[in-house]
Amino acid sequence: MILDECRLIVCGKPYTVSNISDGETAQLTFSITGDSNFQIRATLEDGTVLSTSFGYVTGGAGRYHNRATITVRSNVIEGTQ
What we know:
Mean pLDDT: 84
Order of helices and strands: EEEEEE
Strand content: over 45%
Largest sheet: 4 strands, antiparallel
Strand order of the largest sheet: 2-1-3-4
Radius of gyration: 13 Å
Shape: elongated
Number of domains: 1
């Protein structure tokens, strides 16, 4: 599976990575400007679109640590924080 594009939206700002091969890892650095959740939209090479939202970030950081791991599989996106 090749991930054509993965778009993360957090605090209203989009961040994108593209052309990720099966088993490959990509990293994004995002800015926290207030309270928000993570919105993810992934497009696979066959045109399948997967989307979800999860988690919570806060401008004050605190216990939420403002980090997330996103795993895209052939039929689902999993997000952990």
